[in-house]
Amino acid sequence: MRVNDTVTGHRLLRGAIHPGGAVILRLPDLRQLGVIGSDIAEIVALALEQSVVRDRFTGTAVLTRDQAADLDALGYVARASGLAVDARHDHPFLSSEFPRTVHGHTEGDVLSRFLVRAEEAAVSVGLITALAGDLGDHRGSTPTDPLPAPGKPRSGVGIVEGWRGTIVHRVHRVHRVHRVHRVHRVHRVHRVHRVHRVQLAADGTLSRVKIVDPSFFNWPALPVALTDTIVPDFPLANKSFNLSYAENDL
Known about the structure:
The protein is built from ten helices and eight strands. By secondary structure, the chain is of the alpha+beta class. It has two domains: 2-140 and 217-241, Orthogonal Bundle (Cytochrome-c3 Hydrogenase, chain B), CATH 1.10.645; 154-209, no CATH class. A hairpin with a 2-residue loop joins strand 1 and strand 2. The longest helix is centred in the middle third of the chain and has 26 residues, at 110-135.
């Protein structure tokens, strides 16, 4: 959170991304990121050295590959079950120099989800380090930077891989504000994405926003994984999915 505050001015990243740009007060300290990555790796190693931890994690709350595919699971829940679901590569904003991460544990149990998340932390540190190094002294725009007048109705789509899974925003700008339907699902070739509709007034300000967390699609996977799980393992299984009760990243 301190890194978030240093880079964007808010510990929870509120206001960091806005129509037309992003707030970057300063680039992250790459040495600090390296320390964070090392700390996470050390914690993971210490945890897995304990036989009781490994025993509790292994084979608990299994979500099979077929089950994850049928439920359109996203993010680390899907990847821990062997599905190669990642918006960073499915909608290739990353160049080929950043290959898709191949996870070694895809059994769909608590251990796999734990290890995939640990691997994702290391991958994220590497991506941020590489991309930040290419930015030099670049600074993003601020929320006060005006958007150009739309002139005519325009729309755009933003697709990102959030820490829980794929997030899609659809932005539509018009001369006048009109009613926008509720968030709906859009079926793509391989899986379902959520469209987060953002309505902008003619002056570029937000008049209506609806955001759905990837948890919306991962929640149905939790009871499936719990089918053969004993009651004492429920908290462990629940936190291995780590879903949002509000279905929003706040």
